[in-house]
Amino acid sequence: MGLLKKLFGGEPRLTPELERRIRESFDRDSADEEHFPSTIDPRIQHVQLILRYLGDPGGRRVLDVGCGKGRFARVLKERYPDARVTAMDLSPAMLGYAPSALLRVAGTMTALPFADGAFDGAYATESLEHAVEIDKAVAEICRVVKPGGRIVVIDKNSEHWGRFKTPEWERWFRPKELERLLAKHCREVASQPISYWEDVAPDGLFVAWTAVR
Ligand SMILES: C[S@@+](CC[C@H](N)C(=O)[O-])C[C@H]1O[C@@H](n2cnc3c(N)ncnc32)[C@H](O)[C@@H]1O
């Protein structure tokens, strides 16, 4: 991939035109509750890992990057009403489904509208894969988390690419590839395969990356 990038002109760009197409696509998808649900069973391991790794967010500021309808942030806020949970997404229509108890912000994760160190922790679930400018998005997520704060990214493993139909901008990641990007800004970077249910072994599709800013 590194060599191909060099030969064929580098990282793809999130041009304003592509950003508009992605936003409009997710605005449309927001009506599809079956594939883009507004709630999640809190027992699902993706939720459990985020809760465990971020620790008690009571009274602290947490960012959900590419929150969609805010299904993860909803659980966080219900469990910890005094957590200050910000849900950000490119699609205003998706954000429209997120609970009003969250601070809802529209924007792109490639240029987050927050100050350096504005959050105690952040997570991104199945959203980095749509960022196109992946290095930039990872740098931004890390920038807005304060030193010592924790970061979780849950996304798909490129070794399983082809398993679903995907839009042309989507990218999945090799575990080491995203570890390397996170390690440019963070310490204690690690990754692990993750499944939905505790009693089902991971099949390798989903990976959870963790890092300390
Ligand atoms: C598959 S959905 C996942 C939503 C949510 N994280 C979840 O797990 O339910 C991907 C989300 O990423 C958002 N997204 C895509 N590109 C983005 C960008 N550049 N910045 C912020 N959000 C983005 C989409 O609008 C969409 O809501």
Description:
This protein is α/β, with parallel strands linked by helices and 213 residues long. The chain has helices spanning 2-7, 16-29, 45-54, 71-79, 92-95, 134-143, 175-183, and strands at residues 61-65, 84-89, 103-106, 119-125, 145-156, 187-194, 206-212. It has one domain (2-212): Rossmann fold (3-Layer(aba) Sandwich), CATH 3.40.50. The protein is globular, with a radius of gyration of 16 Å. The model has no long low-confidence stretch (mean pLDDT 95). It has a 7-stranded mixed β-sheet with strand order 3-2-1-4-5-7-6, with helices on both faces. The protein binds S-adenosylmethionine. S-adenosylmethionine binds at residues 22, 26, 66-68, 71, 89-91, 94, 108-110, 125-127, 130-131.
Layout of strands and helices, then pairs:
Blueprint: H1 2-7, H2 16-29, H3 45-54, E1 61-65, H4 71-79, E2 84-89, H5 92-95, E3 103-106, E4 119-125, H6 134-143, E5 145-156, H7 175-183, E6 187-194, E7 206-212
Parallel strand pairs: 1-2, 1-4, 2-3, 4-5
Antiparallel strand pairs: 5-7, 6-7
The structure holds S-adenosylmethionine (SAM).
S-adenosylmethionine binds at residues 22, 26, 66-68, 71, 89-91, 94, 108-110, 125-127, 130-131.
Q: What's the number of helices?
A: 7
**Low-pLDDT residue spans:** none
Give the C-level CATH assignment: Alpha Beta
| Count of all domains | 1
Shape: globular
Bound molecules: S-adenosylmethionine
Question: For the largest beta sheet, what order do the strands appear in spatially?
Answer: 3-2-1-4-5-7-6
Q: CATH superfamily, called what? A: Vaccinia Virus protein VP39
